[in-house]
Amino acid sequence: MQDAALRLKALMEQLLGAPLPVRIRAWDGSEAGPPEAPVLVVRNRRALRRLLWRPGELGLARAWVSGDLAVDGDLYAVLDMVAGLVWERGEDARTLRGALADREVRAAVRGLVRMAGPPLPPAPPREEVRRRTHLHTRRSDRRAISHHYDVGNDFYELVLGPSMVYSCAYWQSPESTLEEAQGDKLELIARKLDLKPGTRLLDVGCGWGSMAIHAAREHGASVVGVTLSQEQAAYARKRVADEGLTDRVEIRVQDYRDVGDGPYDAISSIGMAEHVGSERYLAYARALFALLRPGGRLLNHQIGRRPRRDESAYEIDEFIDAYVFPDGELAPVGRTVSQLETAGFEVRDVESIREHYGLTLRHWVANLEAGWPEAVRLTSPGRARVWRLYMAASALAFERNRIGVDQVLAVRTPDSGASGMPLRARTWN
């Protein structure tokens, strides 16, 4: 008798203390749940073992990446529903995180254990990074950057599109194309930094060279871009050569801590500071301060999280740390501003563009889904699933204000106090 879905639905509702908003399709072909709801596909009993051995976010991620769990229908809708049941009820014992310690749901857990079959823990998917301490040494940072960015330039071209910009775009209109919005973001940064012919710009974490090329081509700047990714550097150098900008743009494989040829007139750090780590952030800010001339500007474009009740408690996003950004850390924007000021900067402008990132991510997900067979060929089925889940879940996180992204404009104001900033704020808009 095909009844696995009905049994699973009943046990999960008992476990969570709430009706399941999704429909379940089990490995025996049975289905249960709201008939019009998106379908969560539990392809085998191993999916249950993954959840039982690692309740919560990491167990769900392992089941998804391995293909033991899938979605038939709107992925965003399913993620939104799961977030409401699991991640956003952190103090409620009736969650997957607290289920094993809740007496009222132990019977449900025993029922799931019986359904799951052999009690051996499944091996994690091969795409998972072994957990390390967050040392943020030069060596560990190189390994983390390589894991994330050396997936293959062809894969990133498929996801990011022709702009090859891997950070939040700036949308003048929802009807703009992704390429237009990314071009507008680069131009916004250039105007905030007041780039002009001859301006010496350091682009920290230069990626595939888009900001460096834009600054040199559109504003006549002389640019040094640094990255820890060999694949990014090779790609960026070819782009620079194709644009005929080798006399104005130099791309280095270099740690920002090893840059010693300042002073620079301006520094852009776009989507890079998330890799620095909270313990080393002040040192990062001081290093950039030292590389700027008096009156020079820093544009720090950085993802931030909402403040926690207890900021002394160290927390990581298990899925992101294991599969996407090893050793990445997010901080509230207030802490970022304080650290920059402690390093000596005068912070002159903070602009939140949170909604812009949700829209950007939805375009990246659409690109990935449209090119799915090619994405799988270029990487692996598991790696492609990692990126689909990571980007779709991140889009919802930005839209629901769980995380944000801010552009912080800061100046190394000279002792005279002459910052060089315009009297009227935001003349770049």
From TrEMBL:
Superkingdom of origin: Bacteria
GO biological process: lipid biosynthetic process; methylation
Region (Disordered): 116-137
GO molecular function, one term: methyltransferase activity
Gene3D superfamilies: Vaccinia Virus protein VP39
Keywords: Lipid metabolism, Methyltransferase, S-adenosyl-L-methionine, Transferase
SUPFAM superfamilies (UniProt xref): S-adenosyl-L-methionine-dependent methyltransferases
Tagged with keyword Nucleus: no
Xref: InterPro entries: CFA/CMAS, CMAS, MeTfrase_dom, SAM-dependent_MTases_sf
A Pfam cross-reference name: CMAS
Residue span, Polyketide synthase-like methyltransferase domain: 155-414
Assigned protein family: Belongs to the CFA/CMAS family.
Protein's recorded name: Cyclopropane-fatty-acyl-phospholipid synthase
Organism of provenance: Streptomyces fructofermentans
